[in-house]
Design goal:
heterodimer; A: about 45 residues; mainly alpha; 1 helix; B: Formate dehydrogenase/DMSO reductase fold; 16 helices
Chain lengths: ~45, ~425
């Protein structure tokens, strides 16, 4: 996991690239999570 | 205090009273020592660790856990979710007492407490994050006090003044949300100055954002947690409207807390990714970081999600407890456990028993005030004479017998 970086540019390309991938997955994850928790909103009454 | 149990009137030596008495006795003794012998007489604070458990618990946790005030009032008055109206007063009361006790606790922690007003009135350090925190807490405490006063004025029967304050509810709410947004995040920003002292897994340039978002989850969870406790101990003080809206409040806040915790979890991962700190996860501190993130963020988030999906209100209780503990753990980690992490063990901070006793003493004061106010004033019910000024669903459904009950309990209507 620990990469060698020789310039700040290298470091930023690597970390920002990883963060952008993570953010993309996060958007999809949050959308799926929202669909999961609201999936039964109109199906059941409160126990 | 024990007005409900006639048998208890005969004896003041109830377990509750005895426990509170011992805590108060210890508190008074340590308070005397603190103000006669100074900080060194009662604390383990040092130049390496000038902020101890009084900051970690009383201030950091106190402010975060008092966030229920601004989240609930924002949901009700700014976002127009009137179905949460019955949760506003308990949340405002909890927040007001929380902030009042934060300021009270600061009198113990600050070396010269009589100089607490100096940053506001005498020598403002406008470039300091701590100045912003102080100013916001000062203004927000006043705001919360004003937001709480309608309950006290209804109890006292001062209709005219109560009506004037109620007209300013929206403005007060917006002011409170702005102040909370600022100082909740600024509490995290205080640690931006210490990148070499705070462990990299907790240090991030996004720490103000982490503090702010986690405070929303803390606020929502505290409303659920405090509601559960109140249902257990103060059920007889709740009207039908509060009881009928309670389930909606729990489900709605659970949904909100689930989403906020999910965002918080993902943002924490992004924070690790942006500074490329993945390798720290394989260390001891990494394991502790994962305990916090998986056990006290991801797990309650999942429990909240199931609560909403299955409409299982019992799960919300456990999720709220886990979230509250998680926020406490996070604030402890940032300000204590992961702070000065590179120092040898001998130089690390551990609080003295007197520091912990003072924290317990302050929490006890808060519990007593909450109990006194919520049993005397219209916190969990609407005062029958002011219902027209507190519109929300289902208020017409209450039977006349309950109105009589409330009138009987609150005869102090001498002002009008």
């Amino acid at each position: 996991m620990e990469n060698q970086f020789y310039t700040l540019h290298d470091f930023l390309v690597y970390t920002k690239g990883a963060a952008y991938y993570l953010m993309g997955l996060s958007v999809l994850g949050i959308l799926g999570f929202w669909l999961y928790i609201t999936g039964r909103d109109e199906e059941k009454d409160i126990q | 205090m024990n007005t409900q149990n006639p048998a208890a009137k005969n004896s003041l030596l109830t377990p509750f009273n005895v426990t509170v008495g011992i805590i108060f006795l210890l508190g008074a003794l340590i308070t005397f020592l603190r103000f006669t012998k100074g900080l060194a007489g009662v604390t383990n604070l040092s130049d390496n660790n000038p902020w101890g458990v009084w900051i970690s618990f009383d201030l950091m946790c106190g402010v975060a856990l008092a966030a229920g005030g601004y989240t609930t009032s924002a949901a009700c008055y700014v976002f127009g979710l009137k179905r949460y109206h019955s949760a506003v007063r308990p949340a405002i009361l909890t927040a007001f007492l929380g902030y009042a006790l934060v300021v009270f606790a600061l009198h113990y922690d600050v070396g010269r407490p009589w100089r607490l007003p100096y940053p506001i009135f005498v020598q403002s350090g406008t470039t300091s994050v701590l100045f912003e925190v102080g100013l916001c807490v000062f203004l927000y405490l006043i705001t919360l006090f004003v937001e709480w006063t309608p309950a006290a004025l209804e109890w006292l029967g001062f209709r005219k003044y109560r009506n004037i304050i109620v007209k300013g509810t929206l403005a007060l709410t917006i002011f409170g949300v702005v102040l909370s947004t600022m100082h909740q995040s600024s509490l995290g920003a205080l640690y931006l100055i210490a990148p070499s002292k705070l462990h990299p897994l907790w240090y991030s340039s996004y720490i103000p954002l982490f503090f702010f978002i986690s405070s929303i989850a803390a606020g929502l969870s505290m409303v659920i947690f405090e509601g559960t406790l109140s249902h257990h101990f103060l059920h007889h003080k709740m009207d039908r409207t509060y009881q009928s809206e309670h389930n909606e409040v729990v489900l709605g806040f659970s949904k909100g807390a689930a989403m906020v915790l999910a965002c918080y979890f993902l943002l924490k991962l992004v924070g690790v990714a942006l500074d490329n700190k993945w390798h720290y996860l394989l260390t001891g501190y990494g394991a502790w970081f994962l305990v916090e993130l998986l056990g006290f963020v991801a797990l309650p988030c999942f429990l909240y999600a199931i609560t909403v999906r299955e409409k299982n209100l019992k799960l919300a209780k456990y999720a709220s407890i886990l979230t509250v503990l998680g926020i406490v753990l996070n604030r402890f980690n940032v300000s204590w456990f992961a702070f000065n992490w590179q120092l040898p063990a001998a130089d690390r901070y551990f609080p003295s028993w007197m520091e912990i006793a003072i924290s317990i003493y302050i929490v006890t004061i808060g519990v007593l005030f909450f109990r006194f106010i919520s049993t005397k004033m219209p916190i969990f019910y609407e005062h029958p004479e002011y219902r027209e000024h507190a519109p929300h669903e289902g208020e017409e459904e209450e039977g006349p017998e309950f109105t009589e009950h409330k009138l009987h309990k609150h005869p102090q209507t001498f002002g009008h």
